Amino acid sequence: MNPVGKPGKAGSLMAVEVALARLLEMAEASTIGERERLPLAQVEGRILADDLVSTLDLPPWPNSAMDGYALRVADWTGEPLMVSQKIFAGQAPGPLKPGTCARIFTGAPVPAGADCVEMQENAEVQADERVRFIEAMTPGQNIRPQGQETTVGEIVLPAGTRLGPIEQGLAASLGCAELNVVRKVRVAVLSTGDELIEPGQPLGPGQIYNSNRVLLCSWLQRLGCEVIDAGILPDDLAATRARLGELKDVDLILSTGGVSVGEADFLGIALREEGELTLWKLAIKPGKPLTFGHFRGVPVIGLPGNPASTLVTFALLARPYLLRRQGVKEVEPLKFQVPAGFDWPKAGNRREYLRGRLENGRAIIYKNQSSGVLRSAAWADGLVEVLEDRTLIEGDDVNFIPLSEVLS
Ligand code: AMP
Ligand code: MG
Question: What range does the domain containing 384 cover?
């Protein structure tokens, strides 16, 4: 049983999918058009700019899937056959002499005239070196047909594909030495807050160490972005204006902190003065306040400052936005249903992303889900999604988003 609470309690909060749809729409309006051509070994983590169209049939010719013997099924009468040629991978055989077989090895081209390969385990070499086949054979067996993987002209990878080791291997199999990729998206990372200092310095009264800066910079690098570390911004309007003004040559300014309601919101003031600002209250927890705007034409996303909120809103909103800016179509993480290993007795009006783990096939959650507790995410393997207005009893299905899905 999945007890569902009263719908529509979220009130004026914006649903996560609505915010995501708006962000993706804005990303599509400013996709990065510039591209570069790179050697295949250097495209890992980049986005393919043009469809990869096959200029080959793959495999280019029928070849043997086994070490054994190539023959024509119709030539087998039960009598042993003479071996008329030996074909290794890398050789170009002549046609098979009728009434004979060919010794053949895995990956070698099947000679014209042969229509099957029998594996050597089912063959007996006689004293006179002829070969006896033990079982009946069928045409096509153990032959990888020409073009079974792809044929000339097929789109093998569409533009917008994120390239990784598998795609690099596939491109190599088609003979591509270079690929056109989208230029890296340039992201400036800003941490806001008078309380922040960097690790390595002594902690003064009221201060905390800046965890979001390194978290986001590393994460963005994993996503293939060019990261401009714009440091810590004090809670001060003049400093905010000046720092934003320096960040001209970037595709996105990504800030954390300073978006909570009621705070002196200098980023917001600066954006309103010299650009535009929308402040969203999202039905998401951790999270809720998120800003999107422009400063002198440069898009700005302001994430909430609590580290677990930064993590969740980056994973679910900023990451898909950045991928879409580069033309990626599949931007949402894979999620799958698992039974909850916990009770959730009190329905909330925001969608919860609990830091959790799979244990014995059930999702369990970290004991402290405070948005300030980043340790919850270090403990976790994934985000457990509990929909708004929903209560759960152990065994009810919840969505699980592996952190590995969003971290790269
Ligand atoms: P804010 O959104 O600025 O009100 O920040 C919310 C909470 O997150 C406050 O407790 C901040 O001290 C904390 N916080 C903001 N930025 C960071 C940061 N870069 N690293 C660690 N904690 C932060
Ligand atoms: Mg702050």
Answer: 1-34+184-408
